[in-house]
Request: fold
Amino acid sequence: MFIEVESYSGYRADERPFRFAMSGRTYEVIEVEDRWYSPRAMYFRVVASDGSRYVLYHDEEADLWTLEAFRARAIAGRKVQEGEAPRPVR
Reply:
């Protein structure tokens, strides 16, 4: 799935993502948990503002970003559905 990404550019272009959008929704990157490189691309495992984890892939040659993986946050042992408000743990 192609996504739109805003990234911080420091010593190199697109050094790390700080915001991304998909399916009409925007997510802030709260934390970059990990990053790894392939010969022509970079991967970022991030925690987004919805509490879920995403793996974002940046093809540096084509300058395209895609969503490679997703893991929804869990509350009290169950996954939270999109748009659902968290319930307190009892």
In short: The two ends are 37 Å apart (CA to CA). The CA atoms of residues 52 and 70 lie 7 Å apart. Residues 85-90 have pLDDT under 50 and may be disordered.
